[in-house]
Amino acid sequence: MTELAIYDMDRTITRTGTYTPFLLHAAARLAPWRLLLAPAVPIAMLAYAAKLIDRKRLKEVNQRLLLGGGVLPARLAPVTASFADRILKANVHPGALRQIAEDRAAGRRLVLATASYRLYVGAIAARLGFDDVIATGTMTGLDDRILPRVDGENCYGPAKLRMILAWMMTQGLDRAAVTVRFYSDHVSDGCVLDWADAPFAVNASAKLRSMARAKGWPLLDWGV
Questions:
Q1: Could you give the number of structural domains in the chain?
Q2: For position 142, what pLDDT does the model report?
Q3: Which of 115, 124, 160, 161 is spaced 20 to 30 A from 152 at the CA atom?
Q4: Could you read off the pLDDT of 170-192 as tens digits, one per residue?
Q5: Where in the sequence is the domain holding 87, given as residue range(s)?
Q6: 102: left (phi over 0), alpha (psi -120 to 50) or beta
Q7: What backbone phi and psi angles, to 5 degrees, belong to 112?
Q8: What confidence tens digit (pLDDT) does each residue in 191-200 have?
Q9: pTM to 2 decimals?
Q10: Which residues of the chain carry a pLDDT beneath 70?
Q11: What CATH number is given to the structural domain containing 100?
Q12: How far apart are CA 144 and CA 184, in angstroms?
């Protein structure tokens, strides 16, 4: 039987979120003048909080503000590499590294499933030794420029489970023949935790901690 170890990333493996820090990191290296637009990012977040836009649109707005209307992959590659190095150096929970090593040693297929953008998550996943990545995609134009448009669904909440199931189909993985471990810090992943054979609430938010206690899920602290 195939064993999958599926991990959320932001605040599960990492200490903090990575999406806005990545955009700021990229803007500082590709077009520093765009940092003048950074004060508009909290305004977009307020629009999301007020339910004027959804999380998918929030990502698109922030990407346009800080990366512009399009950026060539070759120009972005060294930026994603330097950002991944920065994450691995100072923004990963020690317990996450230990668990990843344990799952790898047990022969489990390591999958990173995150709402963050694949365009930089891939570099982080490679450094952590993951086998596969399921993440929010970005559209590309006819000139191969990465556009400020989400390709498909934002890999968040129920959409994350749909994307995991779609990925399993592309890999020829039958759910009945697969054992799934899933690690997450946030209640938005409740449906994936319910679906997993071995769910783990890691560095859990207050709502997830309450849900985990009600459902009998193990609570883990990877910050030590």
A1: 1
A2: 81
A3: 124
A4: 999 999 999 999 999 999 999 99
A5: 2-220
A6: alpha
A7: -100, 120
A8: 999 999 999 9
A9: 0.95
A10: none
A11: 3.40.50.1000
A12: 33
